[in-house]
């Protein structure tokens, strides 16, 4: 008797393109992992994207007087849990935003979820933690093949994620040093992401000026000893959509999470039709 997989949840809107990219990656990865011959062969995804009601996460990180997005995120999560409960299928959820995983935001959400009845229907995966594990795996594989490991990792991210230090925390536990842009260089990174005319969030594309800025940043990180580069902002795949550029190996948290969500969905293939 055929069994359904668990549900996949994308709590989007932070920003909208990040959710769309993750959704697309799940479809792509599914096609790599199994035969897709019709609509019904795809994974069931609950994707809610409500950007107009979610306060800016970076603003709250830098100024706690600003609106906190976590209560709104928790309310959206309740709606997703309701779908899982109605269909009697467990759901694994990801928030495709590196910055939101700053402890001041993500940890209270996880604690509230763990204390609620929703925990019986929904679990939330940590994008940063999963990415750090993938970096560790790559480093170990590299050491096996070449005799040297990736013990210095470059990170391109928003100022909010940079200030949180969450990647440094998880990778530091594995003895991996994180190299980031300095204060001056970070202003250029933020401009490439947020500029209202040519930035990634405004255009949903890697415009020529953005590509030039970010490739210069990659070069700087490599000169400082970074052996691989983490795309620590979910819109960065618009620029670095391949695995290699300028000799750098890029790790995409979005691609990693797509694979992990599929793995979790398969683990929960437990409801008979």
Topology (elements, then pairings):
Elements: E1 3-4, E2 7-12, H1 16-33, E3 45-49, H2 57-62, H3 70-87, E4 91-94, H4 103-115, E5 122-124, H5 127-146, E6 152-157, H6 159-164, H7 166-172, E7 177-180, H8 183-194, H9 200-203, H10 208-223, E8 228-232, E9 244-245, E10 248-251, H11 253-267, E11 271-272
Parallel strand pairs: 2-3, 2-4, 4-5, 6-7, 6-8, 8-10
Antiparallel strand pairs: 1-11, 9-10
Helix pairs in contact: 1-11, 3-4, 5-7, 5-11, 8-10
Would you give an account of this structure?
The structure is a single chain. This protein is of the alpha/beta class. Helix content is 49%, strand content 16%. The strands form 3 sheets. A 5-stranded mixed sheet has the order 7-6-8-10-9, sandwiched between helices. Strands 3-2-4-5 form a 4-stranded parallel sheet, sandwiched between helices. The protein has a two-stranded antiparallel ribbon with strand order 1-11. The radius of gyration is 19 Å and the shape is globular. The model has no long low-confidence stretch (mean pLDDT 90).
The secondary-structure element order is EEHEHHEHEHEHHEHHHEEEHE
CATH level-1 class of the largest domain: Alpha Beta
* Inertia-based shape: globular
Binned, the helix content reads 40-55%
Main sheet record: 5 strands, mixed
| Total domain units | 2
Uncertain stretches of 5 or more adjacent residues: none
Structural class: alpha/beta
Q: What's the CATH topology name of the largest domain?
A: Rossmann fold
Number of strands: 11
CATH arch. level architecture of the largest domain: 3-Layer(aba) Sandwich
Distance between the termini: 7 Å
Alpha plus pi helix count: 11
On the 0 to 100 scale, the average pLDDT is: 90
Widest sheet: strand ordering: 7-6-8-10-9
Q: Any idea what the radius of gyration is?
A: 19 Å
């Amino acid at each position: 008797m055929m069994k359904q997989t668990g549900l996949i949840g994308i709590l989007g809107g932070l920003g909208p393109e990040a959710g769309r990219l993750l959704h697309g990656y799940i479809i792509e990865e599914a096609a790599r992992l199994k035969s897709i011959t019709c609509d019904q062969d795809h994974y069931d995804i609950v994707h809610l994207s409500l950007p107009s009601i979610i306060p800016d996460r970076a603003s709250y990180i830098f100024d706690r007087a600003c609106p906190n997005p976590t209560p709104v995120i928790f309310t959206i999560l309740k709606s997703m849990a309701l779908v899982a409960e109605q269909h009697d299928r467990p759901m694994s959820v990801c928030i495709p935003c590196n910055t939101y995983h700053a402890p001041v935001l993500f940890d209270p959400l996880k604690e509230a979820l763990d204390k609620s009845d929703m925990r019986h229907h929904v679990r939330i995966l940590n994008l940063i933690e999963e990415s750090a594990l993938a970096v560790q795996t790559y480093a170990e594989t590299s050491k096996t093949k070449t005799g040297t490991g990736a013990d210095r990792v470059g990170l391109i991210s928003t100022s909010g994620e940079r200030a949180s230090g969450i990647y440094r925390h998880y990778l530091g536990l594995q003895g991996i040093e994180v190299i980031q842009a300095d204060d001056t260089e970070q202003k250029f990174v933020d401009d490439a992401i947020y500029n209202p005319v040519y930035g990634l969030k405004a255009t949903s594309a890697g415009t020529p000026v953005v590509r030039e800025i970010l490739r210069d940043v990659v070069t700087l990180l490599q000169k400082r000893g970074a052996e691989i580069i983490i795309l620590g902002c979910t819109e960065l795949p618009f620029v670095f959509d391949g695995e290699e550029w300028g000799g750098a190996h890029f790790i995409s948290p979005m691609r990693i999470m797509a694979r992990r969500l599929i793995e979790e969905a398969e683990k929960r293939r437990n409801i008979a039709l």
